[in-house]
Amino acid sequence: METEPPFRTLPYTGQCGRHLMAAEHALIGLSPWNGYFTARRVETLVEWAAGAFRRVDVFIPSYEAAYTLIAAGVAPAVAVGRARRAVKKLRGPAQRALLRAGCGEGRVHTGTSLAARPRYLRLRRTVERTYHQDPGVRAVCRAVGRSAVAGALAAHARTASRPEPEREPGLSEERLDTAARYAWAELPVMLDSPGIFGVSSSVLVYHRRTPLMESLLQDDSALRPAPGQGFVVVAPAGRASPGDAAGDARGARRRRAAAL
Question: Which intervals of the chain are annotated as region Disordered (predicted)?
Fold first, then answer.
């Protein structure tokens, strides 16, 4: 009797579904200061992906996460320290699960580490240039930054030795630009993970739909994903919506085919 998988999958589009069925590569996105990503869930997610895809990598925003606190008015030194600790809490479980699954070292990446890869760096520069030139890209990046500020500030308020404001402060244009750096780090892996990681197709895995990913799929977007790039919502089986059944069926067919 086949065991029920711990996660259900929902591709954004039909093309994303085809990349999911190919199962060549998954890039798991993890977010600091997000209560969804407990150590246990991170390990379970990585282990599931390692059994479903031929190759798995993990991406965690690093120093860019500190920009969200800095934009909220937290001292830079404090912000960097808290970002470093938040990333460490995600990196450890991800690395343990990857090693247990036999995926080896060097599979957990940050914006800082990926900057050594020419394709990521070129895309990062393209993102920054487009941010300053295109109002649509600027608006969605600022919205992502604003949301990240709220989450980071709430987490900081719970752990700070001194009381910090629990509500998101009003952000000036300059501070919005600072917070938007969080999105700048993420966008390259959304645009061309295949090019960055040297595969023909890849799906970016996250636990919910995000405005940033959805914006890239709009016909009028100034930034367009590479042909091999896909996006997939991967949620716990018990929480998934009925619409995820199609993703489950595709996954089951792929697993049966792989077993032949």
Answer: 154-174, 234-260
- Beta bridge partners of residue 128, listed in sequence order: none
Q: Is residue 32 one of the residues assigned to a domain? A: yes
The total of structural domains in the chain comes to 1
- CA 84 – CA 178 distance, rounded (Å): 18
Output the domain CATH number for residue 31: 3.40.50.11710
* DSSP percent split of the chain into helix, strand, coil, nearest 5: 60, 10, 30
Return d(Cα 124, Cα 187) in angstroms, integer.
Answer: 7
Is residue 1 one of the residues assigned to a domain? no
Domain that holds residue 64: 7-259
Position 238 confidence tier, pLDDT thresholds 50, 70, 90: confident
pLDDT by residue (tens digit) across 186-213?
999 999 999 999 999 999 999 999 999 9
User: How many residues are recorded in the chain?
Assistant: 260
Given pLDDT bands bounded at 50, 70 and 90, which one contains residue 241? very low
Residue 161 resides in a domain:
yes
Neighbours of 83 (CB within 10 A): 24
The arrangement of strands across the sheet holding 229-236 comes to: 7-11, 229-236, 202-206, 25-29, 55-60, 108-110
Report CA torsion sign: 119, 120, 121, 123.
positive
pLDDT for residue 4: 59
